[in-house]
Amino acid sequence: MIERVEMKNYKQCVVKSEGPDSASMPPVPISPIKVGHIDDVQELRKTKPKTIPQRFVRDMTERPTLTATLLPPPHTHMPVIDFSKLSKGNNEEVLGEIFSLATACEEWGFFQVINHEIDHNLLESIENLSREFFMLPLEEKQKYPMAPGTVQGYGQAFVFSEDQKLDWCNMFALGLEPQYLRNPNLWPKRPERFSETVEVYSGEIRKLCHSLLTYIALGLDLKGDVFEKMFGVSVQAIRMNYYPPCSRPDLVLGLSPHSDGSALTVLQQAKGGPVGLQILKDNTWVPIQPIPNALVINIGDTIEVLTNGKYRSVEHRAVAHEEKDRLSIVTFFAPSYEVELGPMPEFVDENHPCKYRRYNHGEYSKHYVTNKLQGKKTLDFAKIQTKIAN
Ligand code: OGA
Ligand code: NI
């Protein structure tokens, strides 16, 4: 008999903070987490362009396939959703696009949205300002440090031990909504207009997430406002990922394989960048060709649980490039931390047994941010343990 008991008791390593953001944001470690020396990859690239410290060199099994296995179309083409057909189309167009959206969610867990009604100048501004931020001197960026074990500020998230492999990436992340997630000390003063642009951009992305969740609900034969009602005051966070060029992209990963702990994730890839995002489709890493001005959306763990696995949060990763740098701006949209989640009754019957237990989303978020990124392992937190007799 094999019994899978993979849940980690994360309470052993974290305690709830007493401060204003208790019950929610990144936990406070009981004892400082020892993460060892973390090279800043941009500085490394500047000062020793040919050096790849051992902590970045992946084990053979983890190394990326760069001439990514190009499956014949349509497998290489992530579905494209025309948002204007959903928002302004005639009946037939709306129904047709809801159907395409439902198919994309079920078969890919990822899609690109075009005509999303967010001003392209705003996309360009957030891109330029993020780039300017990463180009600031290290001392300036380090005024907003991401403390070990937390996920806001500048640095590398998800590092919990001295021997853990590191990603070829610099991150800058901020909690946005609800307001209590905000740590004002981490909002950069430079570049000018950075903070106010983040604010405007996030408002637009939030609206898009609400709309997409409505159409996703309709495509599942649910009431349009079901997720909005269930989620309460949604949690929103932003992360900018900067991937400098790497002399040996075959040895490193830009970002470790993972699924997102959100309900939906919105990814903006800066113009002119190389292909870097890869998603695991039918056991093959498929590179995603960005469409200019489109936004990449993916289903996160929350929707997988709510739909009892009908829609899955698909594993993805980022690879580095030998000559070009790459910038992405990622928004995570999730339910309020107070919400209890579990498969909705509509998706459970005798042919579809309940695969996930009910849990508090705040607890799940904590579990997510206190574990390293490891494919879909984090979701074991919610999986109903299966006993397989042999
Ligand atoms: C993420 C992510 C991919 C990318 O930040 O969760 O999957 O291309 N990013 O930066
Ligand atoms: Ni992701």
From TrEMBL:
UniProt entry tagged with the keyword Amino-acid biosynthesis: no
Keywords attached to this entry: Iron, Metal-binding, Oxidoreductase, Vitamin C
Molecular functions (GO terms): L-ascorbic acid binding; metal ion binding; oxidoreductase activity
Stretches assigned to the Fe2OG dioxygenase domain: 234-335
Keyword Membrane: no
PROSITE patterns given in the database record: FE2OG_OXY
Entry-linked Pfam families: 2OG-FeII_Oxy, DIOX_N
Top-level taxonomic group: Eukaryota
SUPFAM superfamilies: Clavaminate synthase-like
Protein family: Belongs to the iron/ascorbate-dependent oxidoreductase family.
Protein name: Fe2OG dioxygenase domain-containing protein
